[in-house]
From TrEMBL:
It is found in: Nucleus, Nucleolus. It comes from the Eukaryota. The keyword Nucleus applies. Transmembrane segments: none annotated. Residues 8-88 form the U3 small nucleolar RNA-associated protein 6 N-terminal domain. GO terms for cellular component: Pwp2p-containing subcomplex of 90S preribosome; small-subunit processome. InterPro entries: Utp6, UTP6_N. One of its GO terms (biological process) is maturation of SSU-rRNA from tricistronic rRNA transcript (SSU-rRNA, 5.8S rRNA, LSU-rRNA). This is U3 small nucleolar RNA-associated protein 6-domain-containing protein. Its main location: nucleus. The keyword Magnesium does not apply.
Length: 739
């Protein structure tokens, strides 16, 4: 309590000043004191204090300062500053400092502290806050990136910035702390901690070159000039033109890095300094940026992911260096990913399609009406968006096809030769060749889908037809060929012949099960789109479900076909469902461990997780409820008697069916409950639900009998502990019924 009193006494001079200035009345000041007393008490609770207590206190002080400024602006001022003009912001700063000292692990408090520092006219406060945040959370990437942006660019108010050397060292040290923390979702295009820092470092170096270029343009200095402007010193920028008379003061505000200087960092810094000393032309041509790019590629062992990361950074780069840096990346890609590399197909695609995405940077036209803030929030370019059109698009597509054909036509037939080593090498080359053919055909199809130019579409279709005829057969290419025939309105006879050949070649082993499913689904959907007679389609469904009895998608299509068939009567549909459900309950209808369907069901939202043994009974119950409600219970009772291994979730769903409301007899529900409690997966809640329903229906004696059976079954299965848990759950249900 004494600590709280001392804290409140420190506010007395500030409050007297506010009262003398007539900013707040005496009653308002009393209310301020009471509010602050409550907040100070919450902070003095010891272990009971939470980070939210500090945030609530800070929010109150922030609103109080906003009110003080609004009132002070309406009061005639003498022009001299007094204590109350800066005491509340200083108090907020102190609260943030205490908060992060007490809860250093809270990122929320650190974020709030940094946000407050950025609102104050104190670059030193921002630098110290960011340095403290980094020291406490060295693996939290946003703090490193934020600190680098502060050192390099500053903020919109003009504070900070101009310290490229400091930003560079921050990025180098961040990569040291984040080493090995690469993106876990690379294939989804999600950057990890390390990738974010590499992006920031390249941005810093490019921004430095562009600032230098602008200053040299203002000074009338261009390439070939004799002025020796570039200098490298211990701290500050790599150019003396970027420093002013207050350089020493700026360096005092620089963010101090945690830890010691690493030898690798020192070597890299020497290389960067050497590049800076190599002359102004090399600097303007992006020598330092190229060095950073080379180190990024080295860090990722020249993987395809690294090259894709660089392309995503450089393609939307707002700098005249864009094309030259991209050319440097492609040169490295060609040198480090030769045709013998497993990554060569991906490298070939990047090289062949580069002209679709790589265009020179066009700076926006300067307009007096467009503010700097508007330019800063402009949407960045999408690196995956095709940037050429018209004749340039046609030329780019043509050159991409030429590059692909040049490689694919050069592929020789791989003879396996003698020896296991040569045989494995031949298999690897064949797999690579297959991947390139599939990649080329998929790209041609994608471009054909996107283009609206008839001439370009004809060119793409011709290349696709040639590629499909020359490529080695595969399930992927067969599906693509079928889509191509459907898109080009080929004769139905050709389409049917291809679909038949496709299922014959790839509709069974050794084709992977997921691809078999795709092949059969494509053939069945093609038959439906061509309006073949039901008598011709029904055998195809039977053949498909025999080949893949565990495919939910195939059974779903088969059920929809059977229900909609003109030759099917309600009795025939019910008979089909009963036989199909029994078929799906056999052991061979269980999917293999490596089977992962690529389809989603349109009938049931839960169907992607449901195997056929779950899907078919649910569809059957829904069909009965909508088409034959009179025979609903009778048909389901017959199903229960002939299908002894129905799932517990399906049986439970029959107690509360979704869809149209149906009359449900007590005898039917009792039969369902008996089937549920007899299920091997049933737990004590099934017994409780059964007994509770009997008691609510007035059949207390039968309910007591069910309770007795439940205790015996649970004791035998789980011992006395299971019985006690059952009794507790039953008592809770009884209390609910009494209420």
């Amino acid at each position: 309590m004494e600590k709280v009193q001392l804290a409140l006494e420190r506010f007395l001079p500030e409050l007297r000043d506010l009262e003398q200035k007539k900013v707040f009345t005496r009653d308002e000041i009393s209310d301020i004191v009471n509010k602050r007393r409550g907040f100070e008490l919450s902070l003095a609770q010891g272990r009971g204090t939470k980070p939210s207590d500090y945030l609530r206190y800070v929010e109150y002080e922030r609103k109080l300062e906003k009110l003080r400024r609004a009132r002070a602006s309406r009061i005639a001022s003498t022009g001299t500053k007094s204590l109350s003009d800066h005491s509340i912001p200083a108090h907020i700063t102190q609260l943030h400092r205490l908060a992060v000292r007490r809860f250093p692990e809270s990122l929320l408090l650190w974020d709030a502290s940094i946000a407050h520092a950025l609102t104050q006219a104190s670059p030193l406060l921002v630098s110290r806050t960011l340095a403290a945040a980094i020291a406490m959370h060295p693996t939290h990437t946003p703090y490193w990136v934020m600190a680098s942006q502060w050192e390099s660019d500053g903020d919109r108010k003009g504070m900070g910035g101009g310290n490229t050397e400091g930003a560079r060292r921050l990025c180098m040290r961040a990569l040291r702390f984040l080493k090995g923390r690469k993106g876990a979702k690379r294939e989804e295009g999600v950057d990890g901690p390390e990738e974010l820092v590499w992006r920031e470092w390249i941005r810093v170096e490019v921004a430095f070159v562009e600032r230098l270029r602008e200053r040299w343009q203002v000074l009338g200095i261009g390439k070939g000039a004799t002025e020796d402007i570039v200098r490298v010193k211990g701290k500050g920028d790599a150019a003396a033109a970027e420093q002013d008379d207050g350089a020493a003061d700026e360096q005092a505000d620089e963010i101090e890095l945690p830890g010691e200087v690493d030898e690798e960092d020192a070597e890299l810094k020497k290389e960067i300094d050497a590049k800076a000393l190599s002359g102004q032309e090399a600097l303007l041509d992006g020598a330092i940026v190229r060095l950073v790019i080379d180190n990024l590629l080295k860090s990722y062992s020249h993987s395809i992911f690294a090259y894709k990361l660089l392309l995503s950074i450089l393609r939307p780069l707002p700098s005249p260096l864009r094309l030259s840096l991209l050319s440097h990346v492609y040169t490295s890609l060609s040198a480090h990913v030769p045709p013998s590399s497993p990554s060569y197909p991906a490298a070939l695609h990047l090289l062949a399609t580069r002209r679709l995405y790589d265009v020179a940077y066009s700076p926006p036209k300067k307009s007096k009406k467009r503010s700097a803030d508007d330019a800063e929030v402009a949407e960045p370019e999408d690196p995956a968006y095709i940037k050429v059109s018209g004749e340039k698009l046609v030329d780019a597509v043509g050159k991409a096809c030429d590059e692909y054909w040049g490689v694919l036509k050069g592929l020789k037939g791989k003879s396996k030769g003698k020896g296991k080593g040569k045989e494995r090498e031949g298999d690897s080359d064949a797999a690579k060749a297959q991947q390139m053919w599939e990649q080329f055909c998929a790209w041609l199809e994608e471009m054909a889908d996107e283009t609206e130019d008839e001439g370009l579409l004809a060119f793409l279709s011709a290349n696709l037809a040639s590629a499909l005829s020359a490529a080695p057969p595969s399930a992927f290419l067969a599906l693509l060929h079928l889509r191509h025939l459907l898109r080009s309105s080929a004769p139905p006879a050709d389409i049917l012949a291809l679909s038949k050949k496709m299922t014959k070649s790839f509709g069974s082993s050794p084709t992977p099960a997921a691809q078999q499913e795709q092949v059969w689904v494509a053939r069945l959907e093609t038959a439906g789109s061509l309006s073949l007679p039901d008598a011709d389609v029904a055998p195809l469904f039977a053949q498909a479900t025999r080949a893949l009895p565990y495919s939910t998608k195939l059974w779903d299509l088969y059920a929809a076909f059977t229900e909609s068939s003109q030759a099917s009567t309600p009795g025939a549909v019910e008979a089909w469902y009963e036989s199909s459900i029994r078929r799906s309950l056999l052991t061979d209808a269980l999917p293999p461990a490596d089977f992962a369907s690529t389809f989603r069901s349109n009938t049931d939202a839960a169907a992607p997780e449901n195997p056929p043994r779950e899907l078919l009974p649910r569809r059957y119950a829904h069909y009965l409820a909508t088409t034959s409600p009179a025979s609903y219970e009778r048909s389901l009772v017959a199903l229960l008697s002939t299908a002894p291994t129905l799932s517990l979730s399906f049986l439970s769903s029959l107690l509360s069916p979704s869809g149209p409301s149906l009359p449900s007899s007590q005898a039917f529900r009792t039969a369902l409950h008996e089937r549920i409690v007899a299920h091997p997966d049933a737990d004590d809640s099934a017994w409780v639900a059964y007994a509770a329903e009997l008691v609510r229906a007035g059949q207390v004696a039968r309910g007591q009998e069910v309770l007795r059976r439940a205790r015996g079954a649970l004791r035998q299965r789980g011992g006395e502990g299971a019985v006690r848990a059952f009794e507790a759950e039953w008592e809770e249900v009884c209390r609910g019924m009494e209420a």
